[in-house]
Specification:
single chain; 384 residues; mainly alpha; 3 domains; two-stranded antiparallel ribbon; 7 strands
């Protein structure tokens, strides 16, 4: 009955440009109708849904997807933006014989170290036609010369005469991107060339010469425009920038790594006093046996627990030093800092930073200190 109803029903998608509805919409409709039937009728009335009916409904949805009557997954309107951006990021780098860091900004750069429209001088020789276009590209940020004044490299380019090979022609993709992005005066190639006849040197006019040629694709759209997490759930962010990418990563630490100038090794493995042991037994009486004599294993377990508590307290209260001097002093002071290797990870920039254990929803553990492998001289100083 339900499959016959959905076969005959004409469902209009919410998006006017969407050809057919989503499969999830039909699945949700099935569940809603079945829930209503469950709450209204019982088996005596003849309403009995079994697994066989569920498989029948699932088969109906799969057949509708194969027949292009339903869409599975997310749907978005087709656009040339991503295609043009991907081709433009590959073709100029290959044709100019340069590195990708000469065209786009590298991770280590923080300024304007990227190719801008003013670095591409477009002009034509002779008649105002596409094949007469010429380009002088300035590579301003070559590796090893970014801090050198007046050290620039020029590359010269012209269109490919074989029109069937235009998909790897740099001039073609530059013009397509410029027209698509509105970076030149004119909406068609003929308008751009005709407008260039009025300029000195028959050069193509650029509207925004300081803008980058390649635009960046943000993976954290909400954070970039300052929206709250609830905004992306409600769809407010999507109304501003369109369909955004999923936030599938934790927040990353973008600042300098924090290192403490107080040695964790000295704090954790300092001699244990009798006061600390009495305090621990008072606070954790349910974890130990009720007797006056502690075996060697129980004593060692108490020592480990106290040192673990010291480590937790150190993480929360230790003063941090972010300067390079503090980091060097720390590395010289802590001789066995290698034992913390499992608690230190490498960041995307290649620097080391302490793992934010709380952000991963797990309790801080200091098992890597190897409490069982304690210096015997320290054990002699412990008082029980």
């Amino acid at each position: 009955m339900l499959t016959s109803f959905f076969n005959a029903a004409k469902i209009r998608p919410v998006d006017t440009n969407k050809p057919v509805p989503n499969a999830s919409f039909v699945t949700h409709a099935f569940k809603t109708l079945l829930s209503y039937g469950d709450s209204t009728w019982d088996k005596l009335d003849g309403f009995d849904i079994t697994r066989r009916h569920g498989r029948h409904l699932q088969t109906f949805i799969e057949d509708a997807i194969k027949a292009d009557r339903l869409i599975k997954g997310s749907w978005r309107k087709r656009t040339w933006d991503i295609v043009v951006a991907k081709c433009l990021s590959v073709v100029p780098v290959a044709s100019l014989g340069c590195r990708s860091g000469n065209v786009a900004r590298s991770n280590g750069d923080v300024g304007f170290e990227y190719m801008q429209w003013r670095h591409i001088d477009l002009f034509y020789e002779g008649e105002p036609t596409y094949l007469n276009l010429r380009a002088t590209v300035t590579l301003k940020f070559q590796k090893g010369f970014k801090d050198t004044r007046n050290q620039e490299f020029l590359r010269y380019s012209r269109p490919l005469e074989d029109l069937s090979s235009q998909y790897f022609c740099p001039i073609a993709w530059i013009m397509v991107h410029a027209l698509h992005d509105g970076s030149v005066s004119g909406s068609t190639l003929n308008e751009v060339l005709d407008d260039a006849t009025t300029t000195q040197g028959l050069r193509v006019k650029q509207k925004s010469p300081d803008l980058p040629v390649l635009s960046a694709f943000a993976h954290e759209v909400r954070q970039s425009i300052g929206h709250k997490p609830s905004s992306i759930v409600k769809g407010t962010t999507e109304d501003h920038v369109g369909d955004s990418s999923r936030e599938d990563k934790f927040k990353r630490h973008r600042r300098e790594p924090k290192f403490s100038y107080v040695s964790a090794h000295d704090v954790v493995k300092a001699p244990i006093t009798k006061t600390e042991i009495d305090t621990w037994k008072k606070n954790n009486g349910d974890l130990i046996q009720e007797n006056d004599y502690y075996t060697k294993i129980e004593t060692e377990r108490i020592r480990r627990a106290i040192r673990r508590d010291r480590g937790d307290h150190y993480l929360k209260t230790a003063p941090f030093e972010t300067s390079l001097t503090g980091i060097l002093l720390l590395s010289l002071k802590v001789g066995k800092i290698v034992q913390l290797s499992n608690e230190i990870q490498s960041t995307a920039c290649g620097a080391a930073s302490l793992t934010n254990v709380e952000s991963h929803n797990k309790e801080a553990q200091f098992d890597d200190f190897n409490y069982s492998l304690i210096d015997p001289s320290l054990l002699d100083e412990d008082s029980l």
